[in-house]
Known about the structure:
The protein is mostly beta strands. It has a single domain (36-172), classed as Pnp Oxidase, Chain A (Roll). 13% of the residues lie in helices and 39% in strands. The chain is built from three helices and twelve strands; from the N terminus they run ββαβββββαβαββββ. The chain has helices spanning 23-30, 75-83, 96-103; strands at residues 2-5, 11-14, 35-36, 38-44, 47-53, 56-61, 64-71, 85-90, 135-147, 150-161, 170-172, 175-177. It has a seven-stranded antiparallel beta sheet with strand order 5-4-8-9-10-7-6. Strand 1 (2-5) and strand 2 form a beta hairpin. It is elongated, with a radius of gyration of 19 Å.
Amino acid sequence: xxxxxxxxxxxxxxxxxxxxxxxxxxxxxxxxxxxxxxxxxxxxxxxxxxxxxxxxxxxxxxxxxxxxxxxxxxxxxxxxxxxxxxxxxxxxxxxxxxxxxxxxxxxxxxxxxxxxxxxxxxxxxxxxxxxxxxxxxxxxxxxxxxxxxxxxxxxxxxxxxxxxxxxxxxxxxxxxxxxxxxxxxxxxxx
Length: 190
């Protein structure tokens, strides 16, 4: 909002966006949100497959649960519906290329070169873990609900992996943004 003055000297608000609930207006307003970037990873033909998402959030701490929104017409949504499992990989600045590749419509999103080999992961991890991620949440899909063009997936967190703190990949205003260094987590559980 910008404040300007009319001919009589009264203050008048000038909005950059003034619209009803139209999809284009909603998209324009939501582009102003700055947030982390994540890749939802599944197994497709027994290979790691990923899709970039920006709509994810924690739901509760007890039990540890998160929520992610996935376009219902994607291979990722089909994989989650079939296997009821996925991982959410919070990306670091080093993974900008992974984010871009996994965001391309119609492109192959196999992550063979980006995923840590299953043999190098703790045995409790079932889904792909991407190299250089800030954190990875291995989840069971406890609830899947279609809303409009997307499915809302509630993920019961089965395991969490996080290496030393890395600079997160951020996105807002239609582009990648410079991030900040996060302090190492304290009180983490092994």
